[in-house]
Amino acid sequence: MSNTRKTGILSVGAYVPYYYLERQLMGSVWGDRGLKGCRSMANSDEDSLTMSVEAGRDCLKKIPRGRVTHHYNATTTSPYAEKSGAALISAACCLNENVLSVDFNSSLRAGMSALKLALDTAASDGEAVVLVTAADTRNAPPKSNEEQLFGDAAAAFAVGSGDVIAELRAFASVDNEIHDYWRNSGDKVINTTEQRFSTDEGYMQSVPAAVREAMKLAGVSAEEVSRFVVNTPGLREYKKAAAKCGFKPEQICDPLMDNVGNCGTAHTLLVLAYALEKAAPGDIIVAAGYGTGANAAVFEVTPEIESRREKYVSKFFERRRAFGEYTRFLSFRGQLEPKQGEPFKIPAAPAISWRERNTYLKLYAGRCTKCGTRVFPASRVCYNCHSVDSEIEESQTEAKSKLFSFSIDRLAGRSDDPIVVQAIADDDQGVRFYLNMTDVEESEVKIGMDLEFTFRKIHNLGGYPNYYWKFRPVRVSE
Amino acid sequence: MRDMKDVVAIVGMGCSKFGERWDCGLQDLIVEAATEAYADAGVGPEDIQCCYFSNGTLTAQAASQCADALMLRNIPILRNENYCCSGHVALFNAWLAVASGAFDVVMVVGAEKLKDTGFPGLGTGRGITPVREARRTAPGSFSQIACRYFEEYGLSYEEGRRMLAKIAVKNHGNGVLTPRAHFHKSITVEDVMKAPIIATPFSLYDCCGNSDGAACAILVSAERARKYRDDPVYIKGFGIAMDAMLPHYRPGFNWLDFDSLKTSSRKAYEMAGIKNPREELDMAEVHDCFTATEMIIYENFGFTGRGGAIRDIEEGFFERDGGLPVNVDGGLKCFGHPVGASGIRMTYECYKQLQHRVDNPERQLKKCDLALSHTFGGGPQISSVLITGNYLG
C-alpha cells in the first residue's frame, strides 16, 4: 500500500522522573568535586518500562488510542532478558490487543532505529499510527564519571501520516563496530575503554558521517538547519561533533546534559522532543543518535506544530525535587544491597498476574449497567444491587482524583524506602481507589489534593517484576 | 427465630500469660489456658464432647495443634479463622453447638504464637492479592478512621492525636493492674505524642501489642450450668456481621460508620434486651487494635452519640471509674493481641469481672452484672459482639 500523504511525527510525549541528583553531591561522597549540573534518577518504583508507559501516555493525550496500530519500544535496560517489555507497555497504555508490539533492545541507537522503522511503517500504510517509546535507566560503576553523566528519562512519539507536526525528509545510517560503551550479558554496569579512543574513533566519526549523508539525501545544507539535535557521551563532545557537521553553536539544541544526563537509547528522542517545544513551521531539524554507529534524520516542521505545541520536556523541570542520599540512589539501582525488609504475606504467581492483568495493568473499574454503581476493582457481583455480571469494565488510568483519606505509613515500604503514603481517593467519575502515593513529600499530603495515576513497579515476588498503579500529586498544569 | 438469650452458659475459663513468650510454643500456651479452664469448670478432657480451635496465622494445619497439645481425640475438633474475630467466632460456634442440643460440654481454645515469625509486626501485604495490597498494613488502614474523624470534626492533627492519646493512657493505666497482660507501664499523653510515628497519626503507643497467648472457655447449657458452679456466666446476646469488600475500596465509604460494627452490636443488644448500652452495660472489652478503633467503636456501638467520643474521652467516661469502663484489663493495647486468643481473652475478663473474681482486686469493678466483649477483624470487615451476664432473665 503506497502512501502519498506526509509521514512524520503526529504527537510528542516525554517523561523525566521526579527526582534528580546533584553531581556535586555524587562527587563529594567520594571526596571529589563532581561535575556541574544534575542527573535525573528513577524512583525506587520505576524502571525503563514504567517510564516508557509514562511517556507513552503523555504522547497519547493527543491521539486516540484506538488509532494506534503498532508500538515500538526501545530500551537497553529492560528488566527482562527474555519477554516482551513492549507488550507490557502496550497493555498499560491501553492500546488495542491487536497492535504489533515490538521490542528494540541492546543498542543505544535502538530509539532512533525504532523511530526510523515507525516512519517506514507509516510510509507504507497511510492508516498506520505507530507509538514509539524509548527509555533507559543505565548503571555505571559507582564513582565513575558516567555515573554522574547518565540520567533516567523516556520519550515517545506517535508517528503516522497526514497532519504531522514534523515531516521526515530523509534518514541515514552508518555502522561503526567498536567497543566504546558496552555491557556484556549479565553485566550490571557499563564497560568503557580509553575515553579519547571512544570519542575520536566512535562518536566523532559516526555522527558527522550520518548527519552529512542525511542532509545530502534531504538536499539541505548545514546553514539551512534550524536545530541540530544529538545525544552526547559527555558534557562537551556534542559541540565538536556539531562543528564537524558544519553547524554553528547557536544551531545546537541543548542536549539536556546539565539537568537530565545521557539517558541512553532515549536521549536523542528526548532532545528532539525538547527541540520541538520551540520549533516554528518550516524549521529544519536534524536529529542524530550515536551508538555503535549513528542514525540521522532530517525533519521539516509543519504549521500543525502551532496547535499542538507544549512544553513537552521542560514541564517536568518545574515539578522536580533534589534527592539527597547517594547511598539510597545506589540501593534503588540494585548496586548496593541494604538490610532486607519484612517478607510479604502473599506470594505472587504468574497465573494470578495474568488473570488480574486488566486490574493491575489497565486499572479497569466496573460500572454496573443496572444501578450505575462504579467500583474498583471490577466485580462479578455488583456491590450495590447484587446483579451478576452486569458491570462494564472501563480503564480509569487517565482520570484525575481527589484525596479522601490517607496515612503516612513509616514502616510499610522496602527497607531503603520505608515510607508509604497509603491513599484513598475518588476519581472524577466517582470510583473509589486505594493505592499508594509516590513522588510526593510528606508535607504536601492533604485531604482534597489533586492526584493522577502513574504506572509503577511494585515488587519482584514470584521471580518477576510486578507492576501496578500509584497515585501522584498533579504537578504539571496542562 | 428462637430466643437465644440465656440458653448457654460459660462454666470455666482459662487464660495464659500474654507477652513475648520465647519460652513457650503454641502448644505450651494452649496447655496453660486449658488446664486453668478444666480446673475452673471442674471437668477433664474426657468430658469435652466438641472443641472449636481459633487461630489466625497457621496455614493448612486444621486444629491439629490443639488436638496434639491437649491429646484430645475422637471428637470434633474444628479450626476457625476469621481474622481478629477468630476467638469470638469460635465461641459463636460453641454457643450454637450447645444450644442445638447436639453436645453437652463444648470447649473453645484460642491461641496464637506471633513471636516466632522473626518480625515485630503483623507484616505488610495483608490483602487478598499479592499486588493490589502489597504495601497495606494494619496501622496504615485503621489510621484512615482517625484521618477522616479529624477532618469530619475539625480537629487539628495535634488535637486529634491528643484525644487518641488519652485512650492509650487509659488502657496502659489499666494494664498495670493486670498481671497477665503483656505490658505493665504507665504512660502519659506526652509519652504518646513523643513516641515514633508508625503510620500517621498513630505513634507506637496508639498501636496494640503483638503478643503470644492463649485463652480457653468451656460452655454448657444454661439449664445444666449450676451443676458445674454457683456463678456461671450466661450468654445473653451474640451478634456477628461481615461487610463486603475491604473498606478501602467500598464506593463512597466514609470510614466513620461501619455497618459491621453497627449491625453486630444492634443484633447483640436486641437479643440481650438492651435498649441503652451506655446506661445498661457495666463494662466493655472492645477491639482497641489502635486507639482510633476504640474511639469509633464508642460511637458505632451507641456508647455515645456520633461525634460524642471527643467529649466522653475528655471527661473520662470510659475509664475504670467512669460511667462505662472500657478495656479494664488493658485491652489489646496492653494485654496484647495474639489474634486467635483475643476474643476469648476479652470474654475471660468479662467472666471474671461478672463473677467478682478478678486476679487483682484493684481492678475489680464494684458493680458488674452485664458485660460486652468485641473483636473487629480484617481490613476491617468483620465484627463480633458477645454480651454476657451473671444472672438469668
Strand content of chain B: 15-25%
How many domains in all of chain A? 2
Q: What's the CATH architecture of the largest domain in chain A? A: 3-Layer(aba) Sandwich
As a percent range, the share of helical residues of chain B equals: 25-40%
CATH superfamily of the domain at 8-116 and 210-222 in chain B: Thiolase/Chalcone synthase
Largest interface: A-B, 48 and 42 residues
User: What composes the largest sheet of chain B?
Assistant: 9 strands, mixed
Using the coordinates shown, work out and report the CATH topology of the largest domain in chain A: Peroxisomal Thiolase, Chain A, domain 1
From the alpha-carbon coordinates, what is the Rg of chain B to the nearest angstrom? 19 Å
| Average pLDDT metric of chain B | 96
Number of helices of chain B: 13
Q: How would you sum up the global shape of chain A?
A: globular
- The quaternary organization reads as heterodimer
Write a structural description.
- The complex is a heterodimer of chains A (478) and B (393).
- With 478 residues, chain A is an alpha+beta fold.
- Chain A has two domains: 7-332, 3-Layer(aba) Sandwich (Peroxisomal Thiolase, Chain A, domain 1); 350-473, no CATH class.
- In chain A, 23% of the residues lie in helices and 28% in strands.
- Chain A has twelve helices and 22 strands.
- In chain A, a hairpin with an 8-residue loop joins strand 9 (181-182) and strand 10.
- Chain A is globular, with a radius of gyration of 22 Å.
- In chain B, the strands form two sheets. Chain B has a nine-stranded mixed sheet with strand order 3-2-4-7-1-8-11-10-9, sandwiched between helices. In chain B, strands 5-6 form a two-stranded antiparallel ribbon.
- Chain B has a domain at 8-116 and 210-222: Peroxisomal Thiolase, Chain A, domain 1.
- By secondary structure, chain B is α/β, with parallel strands linked by helices.
- The longest helix of chain B is centred in the middle third of the chain and has 19 residues, at 157-175.
- The radius of gyration of chain B is 19 Å and the shape is globular.
- Chain B has helices at 26-41, 64-70, 86-99, 138-152, 157-175, 189-194, 225-228, 259-272, 277-280, 291-300, 309-315, 331-335, 339-354; strands spanning 8-15, 50-54, 77-80, 106-113, 197-199, 202-203, 212-221, 233-242, 283-285, 370-377, 382-389.
- The mean pLDDT of chain B is 96.
- The chains are: A alpha+beta (478), B alpha/beta (393).
- The A-B interface holds A 342-349, 352-353, 356, 359-360, 373-377, 383-384, 404-413, 420, 422, 424, 426, 430-434, 436, 447, 458-459, 461-462, 466-468 and B 119, 121, 123-137, 139-141, 143-144, 147-148, 151, 196-202, 244-246, 248-253, 255.
